[in-house]
Amino acid sequence: MSFESAKQLVAADLQEVDRVIRNRLASDVVLVNQVAEYIIGSGGKRLRPLVVVIAAKACGSTDQRHTEAAAIIEFIHTATLLHDDVVDGSSLRRGQDTANAVWGNEASVLVGDYVYSRSFEMMVSLGSMRIMDVMSRATNRIAEGEVLQLMNAHDPDCTEERYFEVIYRKTAQLFEAGTQIAAILTNSPPYIEEAMTKYGRHLGTAFQLVDDALDYRADRDTLGKNLGDDLAEGKPTLPLIYALKHGTDEQRALIRTSIENGSAEALPQITTAIESTGGLAYTARLARQEASLAIEALAVLPDSEYKQALRELADFAVERTY
């Protein structure tokens, strides 16, 4: 089963998620509608809501509340994208201009706030304090992750430990929350909820590791963003951290300077350094380990086509090229 096959498996549910998203985005403020529709409609994998839907189905969901939950996760993700692009000064995402490049930073931040607050209105409609608790904690940690990433920026001495703390909070946390609330919605027993939580955490970590590697091995058209953006923003991601530890004196000096100055001018040389030191292979190996842990967590679920789809999504997270 491929990524597209997984989407086809729950195609009707995903259509409902899209309907919920557009219905809940509606505002009588024209600019809010324009910016929100632009970012939601700009493509993307929609992996997070897909994971929520399939996780709920794997846990035995018999109603449609999981589509609302999936839309909530996508809203929070969208809000973070709007804010991230402003903080990072990004101009390209998913192969097109970012919202802040089109409407300006002020509109992007404010509409991001709107989408974020709307997600909490939607949580209330689910009528579960447990879900409110999980999601409020998750969004708080995501915000902390953004601040931690800001603190790590331009610091070539950032450690692997600090890096993993950032990607857990920034990325894996939302995957984890999504799969956990899928279990909560289906009134799954604690051991199933724990398993689904672990699945989301490891899946999200694998996904981000691959994302950071792709910044040094993909091409702009396939990736949908400018290559070397992380370097230009002074972000010490794992491939860079590994190359700093294992490179030659000349390579280390070049990488340190580029991180400190937030410059991608030496991207070709740094990409060569990352490849020659094994930085990409190391990152890929850790991503595969995380995907394997995600798959192991599924062992307690009853066999079904949805369980198999979750396995396939873990494979997709590490094998993708975009």
Largest sheet: 2 strands, antiparallel
Low-confidence stretches: none
Q: Class, according to the CATH hierarchy? A: Mainly Alpha
Q: What is the chains' assembly state? A: single chain
- Rounded mean pLDDT score: 92
Counted by DSSP, the helix tally is: 17
- Beta-strand portion reads under 5%
Distance between the termini: 18 Å
Order the strands across the largest sheet as they lie in space: 1-2
Listing every helix as H and every strand as E from the N terminus to the C terminus, the arrangement reads: HHHHHEEHHHHHHHHHHHH
How many domains? The number is: 1
> Approximately how much helix is present in the residues?
over 70%
Number of strands: 2
- Fill in the CATH topology: Farnesyl Diphosphate Synthase
Please tell me how large the radius of gyration is: 19 Å
The outline comes out as globular
What is the CATH homologous superfamily assignment? Farnesyl Diphosphate Synthase
SS class: mainly alpha
The CATH architecture classification is Orthogonal Bundle
Catalytic activity: 5 isopentenyl diphosphate + (2E,6E)-farnesyl diphosphate = all-trans-octaprenyl diphosphate + 5 diphosphate
Keywords: Magnesium, Metal-binding, Transferase
Pfam families: polyprenyl_synt
Organism: Povalibacter uvarum
Structural summary, described in words:
The chain is mainly α and 322 residues long. The protein is built from 17 helices and two strands. Strand 1 (92-93) and strand 2 form a beta hairpin. Helix 4 runs antiparallel to helix 5 (65-88), helix 4 (47-58) runs antiparallel to helix 17 and helix 5 runs antiparallel to helix 7 (105-126).
